[in-house]
Design goal:
Elements: E1 3-13, H1 15-22, H2 24-44, E2 48-53, E3 56-61, H3 64-83, E4 92-105, E5 108-110, H4 112-123, E6 129-132, H5 133-138, E7 146-153, E8 162-168, E9 197-202, E10 205-210, E11 216-219, E12 226-227, E13 238-243, E14 246-251, E15 257-261, E16 268-270, E17 274-277, E18 280-285, E19 294-301
Parallel strand pairs: 4-6, 11-12
Antiparallel strand pairs: 1-3, 1-4, 2-3, 4-5, 6-8, 7-8, 9-10, 9-19, 11-13, 13-14, 14-17, 15-16, 15-18, 18-19
């Protein structure tokens, strides 16, 4: 018999450079130590570790609040690990949370929520926690966590686009998070009071977005606000949010994004990471600028970032 559970999938990426840097034995000991720590954090919040899958850990919680609190502690704790870690062989953590019907058989867990948590973990960037709307609705007030709606995404293996939220766990950022665009009872941060405008241009056509329109998704999918039908562009390639009175670009693609600011000498490579947009410039999707790939032009007005 199935029951409603919150499934967490926490995955460590970057193990290949770790093995190259430390050798098989030391790298294996490091990964085992980290996955054991992940399991201990889950259990300390009332969760049950279902299994360890290589560099990842799958767990289940009876409470969405406990699952979210566990995910936040994992990301906070891992940031402390990274501060002590040499640049070579750093392993980033990605977390996916999904609440739904789960069938537990002989200690294992099955069901759509299990698959969804894995897909969300795949799409989350380094240090991010992605959740489904069921988790955001059921979690209630979680200390030092705010849910922010990212938009509607197409996920591998899902026939319908999914409403996705990000559980923001960084204490310094939480007062400036965007209001969640849904009537949920979870912790909701106030709307940033400073407004801006972003203009995106592609193939001679321009669209303007205000900070209130965020998030904006760019990709090959018809569900994206800016749809670019080019095979070099991922179905959901990037999203743009409004944080701390600035537009923030986050790459969620398979092959990366490059940003060149007018007046700068070099482009910024963004791969499963974020950067702020300010002034004006160009964005290359899927391939670097020098390859002549898909280019967007951007122009920002009214935010706090200025060219130095």
């Amino acid at each position: 018999m199935s029951s409603t559970l919150t499934v967490i999938f926490a995955d460590l990426t970057g193990s290949t450079p770790l093995y190259e840097a430390l050798g098989n034995q030391r790298a294996t000991e490091t990964v085992v130590r980290l996955t054991r720590w992940i399991g201990e954090v889950m259990e300390s919040h009332g969760g049950r570790v279902v299994k360890v899958l290589g560099d990842g850990v799958l767990g289940v919680f009876r409470s969405a609040s406990d699952g979210t609190a566990s995910a936040a502690e994992l990301q906070r704790g891992h940031q402390i690990h990274l501060q002590r870690w040499p640049e070579v062989g750093r392993m980033e953590m990605h977390v996916g949370l999904a609440t739904g019907d789960v069938l537990e058989v002989d200690g294992d867990a099955y069901g759509d929520a299990v698959n969804l948590a894995a897909r969300l973990c795949e799409r989350a960037g380094p240090g991010e926690i992605w959740t489904n709307d069921g988790t955001a609705a059921a979690a209630g007030l979680v200390p030092q966590v705010r849910f922010r709606k990212l938009g509607v995404f197409e996920l591998r293996g899902k026939s319908e686009p999914q409403a996705i939220f990000q559980a923001e766990w960084r204490d310094a950022e939480s007062p400036e998070m965007l209001t969640m665009q849904a009537p949920l009872h979870s912790a909701i941060a106030p709307l940033d009071s400073f407004f801006g405008t972003l203009q995106l241009s592609w193939q001679g056509s321009s669209q303007c977005y205000s900070s209130a329109d965020m998030p904006v998704q760019v990709g090959r999918s018809s569900a994206a606000q800016l749809c670019i039908a080019d095979p070099r562009v991922s179905r959901m390639h990037l999203r743009i949010d409004w944080h701390n009175s600035a537009f923030v670009l986050t790459d969620v693609s398979s092959f990366g994004t490059w940003v060149h600011y007018d007046g700068s000498d070099a482009a910024v490579a963004v791969r499963r990471d974020s950067c702020r947009l300010y002034g004006s410039g160009k964005i290359a999707l899927g391939t670097p600028f020098e390859t002549g790939g898909v280019l967007l032009e951007f122009r920002v007005a009214g935010n706090s970032m200025r060219l130095g």
